[in-house]
Design brief:
The chain is of the alpha/beta class and about 130 residues long. It is built from 5 helices and 5 strands. A 5-stranded parallel β-sheet has the order 2-1-3-4-5, sandwiched between helices. Helix 3 (about 65-75) links the parallel strand 3 (about 55) and strand 4. The chain is globular, with a radius of gyration of 14 Å.
Length: about 130
Amino acid sequence: MERELDRIVYVDDDPDILTLIQAVFDMTGRYHLCAFSNGHDALKQLRQLNPQMILLDVMMPKMDGITLCEKIRAMSGFEEIPILFVTANIPVQGDAYRKTGANGVISKPFSPASLPATIEKFWQSWDVNHGATA
């Protein structure tokens, strides 16, 4: 039995990307995307948002995505939530990202219109491999 993905947190310091991604996900009508411009704000609200998936930009001021990923993984109840990095630095550091606790990497630049399908494909694979519990 598959679970539907509907609660996603996205953290990126670029306001144009956040606005675009929010619009793309809103147009699908399937997902509730909570977007944050920095890791500190996201950390404060993660528990009450109860996301099913988290997307993180890597290069952010104050708290980069790697540090944020490590902090999320240290939170009780967030050990198994899929975290994907969204970055242009895949060829250089792709394996290193996974060692921080991330489950995958989405390459920038990406087609905003194709992002929901990319996320859904990852979710279906994750759901099958990690059991479909609510």
